[in-house]
Amino acid sequence: MNAAGFTASMSASDSVMWTIERDPELRSTVIAVSMLDRPPDGMRLRSRVEQAIRDIPRMRQVVDPAGGRSMTPRWADAGYVNLDYHFRTVAAPQHRDGRWLLDFAAALAESGFDKSRPLWEMVSVEGLESGGAALIVKVHHSVTDGVGGVQLLMMLLDSSRRSARPLSGPAGEESGSQPVSRPLPVRALAAAGGVVAGAARLPETAGSAIRTAVSIGRLVAPAGGRRSSVLVGHSADWHFDVCERPLDDLKRAGAVAEGSINDVFLAALAGGLNRYHLAYGHKVEELRLTLPVSLRKAGDPLGGNKFVPVRFSLPISEPDPIARIRQVQAVSKRWRSEPALPFTEAVAVVLNILPAPLTTAVMGSLLKGVDFVATNVPGVPFRCYIAGAEVTRQFAFAPLSGAAINAALLSHAGVACIGLNMDRQAVTDPDFLMACMSEELDEVTAVGAASGPTDGREP
Predict the structure, then answer these.
(1) Do residues 16 and 23 lie in contact, with contact meaning Cβ atoms separated by under 8 Å?
(2) pTM metric for this prediction
(3) Is the CB of residue 38 less than 8 Å from the CB of residue 331?
(4) Which of 1, 25, 120, 166 makes a 20 to 30 Å CA pair with 316?
């Protein structure tokens, strides 16, 4: 793989993501869990990881902090990568089920990173139920976004059990275009119009300039508190859980409602959260959502983040699934077209000028007012293998970044694999929340049960 495109300097947005980790509730750890039908060949897997370290600069680099806040941090070669630290194999305790694996992965995410080393770890877990295994990948979000992360993971994948060569080319596009993301919105920029205009292409007319300025104001406005009266509190403790559905079920529902897979996913999340609130005796019309929108294009380097976070209020109380899908589509489409979206990186430049404690406080005031985050990542659309073991499922768990819940849909070989990361203080009954989500997924996807095969609309 050509290392071109992996610049030494962090982008402004990646630098903000790095800086605000001084607040543990805003940490930027991403976890990916690949479920395997058997333990992988340890030597083959280790050899493939060694090759990835040679091919991918970020896997052998550390962050060199900026000498002053007028400069962004830089990536620097670590000189030596202790593979025994970054890659290890563990045995699951006997008589433990899938709940143990999810708790283990959450604990791994909570442990943070040794920032004197490259910002990634891999753990191969053997001895799971029925002879299965898992590969857990932990990476800091400043290294890459979800789409780039899937492309990096392709370096470990084979097209058959016996193949010794990684798959080539990008991941498929069967599920969507949003990355597994932590929101990177920005604030305190009402007076930063001059900086933004200087760092990005100026609008061509006075009218468009005003519309852009107003849009930037909406994008960076302080969030206040969460809209939920149930998802209360913030902590640095994460709880992981998963569910899945055939991807075709989401496609058919989207076709019936004239929406996309992502619209169906958001409608199911909205309905599930509505069920959860009503069970607690609280009727909430809207919740504040952060929806990452990918800007990654073909040919972009794998490193760094290429997305814009869009934050808006999402209606959740519509009882009819088809009407809710259409409602979600209308709201999200409107916000995806905000004129300010191309200016997000320029806004982040301003945040990098601020002292680190102020940047953290500003971002915290914005991010901690979000009720939930939803992200949708295109995964691998066909059967694949890691060192002789077939990948049966792939789940992603994105950082909360101050929100109560982050739900990530990662498609894999025709399955919509949904990973939920929940703040343990805000979500007091995660099992019940998962039951609400499962019931709503059934109800929403049922609208397409009577329709024939369809390719559906992509997000």
Answers:
(1) no
(2) 0.82
(3) no
(4) 25
